[in-house]
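User: quick one, sequence for these tokens?
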């Protein structure tokens, strides 16, 4: 008994192509979303090496703002007293 080559029905081939196109579209969409978040994070980041009383230092949670602040004025030493 001899068997011939198996053929795949056309509707299964079409479904497979459609699934591959959908998967490729989802991959592209994911890449674009990751790129957009990276751009947002980079745009909202303050420069690390800016001079002044406050500086950014590395920590386990990422960059942390540390430094000295100007003291608050005393309530009894204002110009209206």
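Assistant:
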């Amino acid at each position: 008994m001899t068997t011939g080559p198996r053929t795949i029905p056309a509707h299964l081939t079409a479904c497979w192509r459609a699934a591959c196109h959908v998967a490729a579209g989802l991959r592209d969409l994911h890449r674009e979303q990751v790129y957009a978040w990276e751009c947002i994070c980079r745009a909202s980041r303050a420069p690390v090496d800016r001079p002044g009383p406050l500086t950014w230092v590395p920590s386990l949670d990422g960059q942390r703002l540390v430094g000295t602040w100007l003291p608050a004025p005393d309530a009894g030493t204002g110009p209206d007293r």
